[in-house]
Amino acid sequence: MQVGIDMGTTSGGTSAALDIEELLATRLLVQGNSGSGKSHLLRRLLEQSAQWVQQVIIDPEGDFVTLSDRYGHVVVDGERTEAELAGIANRIRQHRVSCVLTLEGLDIEQQMRAAAAFLNGMFDAEREYWYPVLVVVDEAQMFAPSVGGDVSEDARKMSLGAMTNLMCRGRKRGLAGVIATQRLAKLAKNVAAEASNFLMGRTFLDIDMARAADLLGMDRRQAEMFRDLKRGNFVALGPALSRRPLPIVIGNVETSARSSSPKLMPLPDAPQDVEDLIFTPDPEEFTRPVVRRAAPAPRPTTDILAELSRSTPAATPAPAEPRAVAAAMAPEEREERLAAVLAEILGDPQAAYRTDSVLYQEFLVRARMRRIVGQPMSMSEFRRRVAVARAGVDEETAASDGWKMALDLSTRVSDDLQGVFLLLAKAALKRELCPSDLRIARAYGTHSARRARRLLGYFEEQGLVVVHTDLSGKRIVAFPDLEAETLPGDADLRDGDEATSNAAE
Does this model's pTM top 0.70? Predict the structure, then answer.
């Protein structure tokens, strides 16, 4: 179905139509300096196409959250764990809900990691949910920088990889990237080059004008025109817009951003005693302390629960003997109770797909219900023990030097990957079949077999494992540091088949 939406008017006064179906297949790049009207253009595009296609907006400044009131977009706060964001993104695709991922309040590295996790979650959706989605990324040069900046190399690679997947490989998965940038020179070339439609606004630097002219197929001497474009004026080119460079003026929008451009305001009339007002101090001015307040950072729920676990209940008329017994709990008994609580939580079949923060909250609550006294287990220790428990290591293996070395090696990966790493290490040390993609995915907390394969590739990039196959094509994961490797295993096995194969082996 061909749907043309009205983006505004051309220089000839006719309607500037954009073919949404063509846009989904060919992607769009918007460029213009600050104040050129990029956000206004994106808002016009989103408003006009809201009824026709699912939309996801990566919003670093929180400007597009106002779409939720009129068009029903779900607002997703980016201040979540990467696993939570990936899960939300996956469900967004399943239920075909338009949303705005607002990253306002996060520093640049946190924004890059949050956006990457969300985009990867959408990219890794199962094939049955590959419905068309318009993915709009504002300030794309932040998420796909051409050179490294002040952020860590890991965050830059993660964000750039997600943006590259969106623009290079997203089309077959129904993801149509619409990226907007202030400067083409700051945007990674392999990301910009995948767009076939362009809307170029006002820009002043020679290097940006030259790149804009090259993308539009214009002569270098014509690049000067980009300096003279007014706010809201763009030059359009592409199969969804026009086969020749076409100046257009973006039309009006129905919603507005929470922030706006500065406006001039007349000064109030100066009172007659203005000098007295300025130079005469308040009698209490010198007695008041100078307090510079900083906005408090939001406290994680896990910290609050941990504090509650440490708090001492108010005095009650209950006899003192039970409290004395609790205080005198032997370390062995305390450890036994903690292990029992942990086993209860992980025994739930859905526990594998819950985030560590949710499991940790439940763990703290159950520990208090069992009256386990003492310093509560920290989040990092909890994650470590969950990773070991999910690996399913027995007592003999746990006491071996190889397992101790595996635990040391696991510290080289992030907390959320340690469970997968230890699962593979246990299989290698015990000479078990290599876990299938679905088994690895469950250890990570996802249903995506594709993500499991990507995790193996990440471990290999870090120099921790070597992945290879035998003559029959079955996968083997070797650990050079442990001098051990798994038996050849079928990556496509289901969990039940894998258990049968391990038993037969």
Answer: no
Alpha-carbon 91 to chain mean position: 14
Q: Is the dihedral of CA 437, 438, 442, 443 positive or negative?
A: negative
For residue range 462-473, list pLDDT tens digits in order: 889 999 999 888
- Residues whose CB falls within 8 Å of the CB of residue 222, separated by 6 or more in sequence, listed in order: 213
> Considering only CA atoms, which of 412, 463, 465, 471 is closest in space to residue 440?
465
State which amino acid sits at residue 300. P
Q: Whole-angstrom Cα distance, residue 363 to residue 451?
A: 27
Distances, alpha carbon 155 to alpha carbons 108, 149, 444, in Å: 10, 11, 20
CA distance 330 to 271: 76
| Bridge-based pairing state of the strands 4-10 and 242-250 | antiparallel
Ramachandran bin of 478, using left for φ above 0, alpha for ψ from -120 to 50, beta for the remaining angles: beta
Q: Phi and psi for 480 in degrees, rounded to 5?
A: -60, -40
Give me the sheet containing 175-181, strands edge to edge: 15-19, 4-10, 242-250, 233-238, 197-200, 28-31, 175-181, 133-137, 54-59, 99-102, 74-77
- Contacts with 376 (C-beta within 8 Å, 6 or more apart), sequence order: 306, 309, 310, 364, 367
Continuous H helices in 61-178: 67-71, 82-95, 108-123, 140-143, 153-164
Q: For residue 16, is pLDDT > 70?
A: yes
Q: What is the DSSP string of 127-141?
A: GGG---EEEEESSHH
119-133 per-position pLDDT tens digit: 999 998 888 889 999
Residue ranges and CATH numbers for the domains of the chain are: 4-250 (3.40.50.300)
pLDDT tens digits, one per residue of 160-201: 999 999 998 888 899 999 999 988 878 888 888 888 898 888
pLDDT for residue 180:
92
Average the pLDDT over 399-414 and give the result: 86
Q: What is the token pair recorded at 427? A: 């299989």
Helices (H), 138-236: 140-143, 153-164, 189-192, 206-216, 225-228
